[in-house]
Design a protein that fits this description.
Keywords: Aminopeptidase, Hydrolase, Protease. The chain has 401 residues and is an alpha+beta fold. It folds into two domains: 136 residues, Creatine Amidinohydrolase, Chain A, domain 1; 251 residues, Creatine Amidinohydrolase (Alpha-Beta Complex), CATH 3.90.230.10. Helices cover 32% and strands 18% of the residues. Strand 13 and strand 14 form a beta hairpin. The chain is globular and about 70 Å long. It starts with 6 loop residues before the first helix and ends with a strand.
Length: 401
């Protein structure tokens, strides 16, 4: 069981970006993206109007943070120097970062963006106003293929997601409120996870637990991103669930279509089509498989079944530190890789060992939606199922008393 990334993982990542830096004319790699900074250093922060700027040279690693993050970053063993400003806008964060680069002897950078993202009202100068800048997406691309250590964290996430989902099913009954059931399942699974892991748990949340399990109900299920309606559960309800757990910043995805009481013939019909579509997609997965082909084979199946008009999205996506990460199992992925707007190539259009996919083809009628999602890794010789909650119809019927 692994619940935390080891030091060696960060060493490999930093070595990789330094190798890429050596192939450029830049003096440093620079990152503004919170996930990229966490990926390289282990420093996690909430991206707000206060920019954080990481600089990596061939010998040094420095970071600029707002004053309120200084104590959190000073103990990080990978950071050689910490620079800070009081706050935004008075503290002039980009100018502070420029001073950091000057002290590092940096005149040109390869950066993931030309300045901090405009979130929460941030408006600041471009970094290129002060230094020569070329664009790079090294970390974003590195995250596609997960290492064995990363896979361990996602496996651990799937284990606790499974527990959260079991609580969901246990506490679901007519008359219960979906929000209450979701909160109770999330709370109890989180408590079990925290008690079990003890000091092996890496704190990643503020004020809530690491496991989330919940669902949408009734007509909201016909919307792929529906909301939790303010209504009590009733016999005959269709539920579309979701469960995950945060393990040192990594996630899995588990979703099921469930029924409160026995489904009617129409519901069984659509459930079985959805389940078959997911099985068809999973059967296609493997190293070297064209990513777009998996989406197309499901689309062909839906057309054969006469439900193509009920499909609203592609088959799935990568998952890891982000809930949605590229590549995407989409019929347009190969064309996307060949587009002049991306820096991908032919190798990026096929599945590789280390890809971790959510497989979730769904169909949505005028009344209800039907979708399972499972997290599945591509290995050297096939695939590995990471989520394992039962998928069959009988296991997803909540019996009535």
């Amino acid at each position: 069981m692994s619940t935390q990334l080891p030091v060696e993982e960060f060493e490999h990542r930093l070595e990789a970006v330094r190798d890429r830096l050596a192939e450029t004319d830049a003096d440093a790699g620079v990152w503004f993206g919170a996930t990229s900074i966490e990926y390289l250093t282990g420093f996690d922060h909430i991206q707000t109007e206060r920019p954080v700027v990481l600089a990596v040279t061939d010998e040094r690693i420095a970071i600029t943070v707002p004053r309120l993050e200084v104590e959190r970053i000073e103990s990080n063993p990978r950071i050689d120097a910490v620079y800070h400003y009081r706050d935004y806008p008075g503290g002039e964060p980009i100018e502070t970062a420029v001073s950091m680069l000057e002290e590092l002897g940096v005149e040109s950078v390869a950066a993931d963006a030309d300045g901090a993202p405009g979130v929460m009202g941030y408006q600041g100068p471009a970094l290129s106003e002060f230094v020569d800048l070329e664009s790079q997406g090294w970390v974003a691309r590195m995250r596609w293929e997960k290492s064995e250590v990363e896979l361990d964290l996602i496996r651990e996430s799937a284990k606790w997601a499974n527990l959260g989902h079991r609580y969901l099913a246990e506490y679901t009954e007519p008359g219960a409120h979906p929000a209450t059931v979701s909160q109770r399942a999330s709370m109890e699974a989180s408590r079990a996870m925290l008690d079990t892991l003890g000091d092996q748990y890496v704190a990643r949340t503020r004020g809530d637990g690491p496991v989330h399990a919940g669902y949408i109900t009734g007509e909201q299920t016909r919307l792929p991103h529906g909301h939790t309606a303010n209504r009590r559960l009733e016999a005959g309800d269709v539920l579309v669930t979701g469960a995950s757990a945060n393990v040192d910043g990594y996630y899995s995805e588990l979703e099921r279509t469930m029924f409160v009481g026995d489904p009617d013939d129409e519901q069984v019909h659509y459930f079985e089509i959805m389940l078959e579509a997911q099985e068809i997609a999973i059967d296609e997965l493997g190293p070297g498989v064209p990513i777009a082909a998996v989406d197309r084979v499901v689309e062909e199946y839906f057309e054969e079944q006469g439900v193509a008009d009920l499909a609203q999205h592609h088959v799935g996506h990568n998952i890891g530190m982000g809930g949605h990460e590229p590549p995407y199992i989409d019929e347009g992925w190969a064309d996307h890789c060949e587009s002049e707007h991306t820096n991908y190539d032919e190798a990026d259009a096929v599945m590789q060992p280390g890809h971790v996919w959510t497989i979730e083809p769904g169909i949505y009628t005028d009344t209800y939606g039907y979708r399972h999602s499972d997290t599945i890794a591509v290995t050297e010789d096939g695939i590995e199922w990471l989520t394992y909650y039962p998928r069959d119809l009988e296991s997803n019927i909540v019996p009535l008393e």
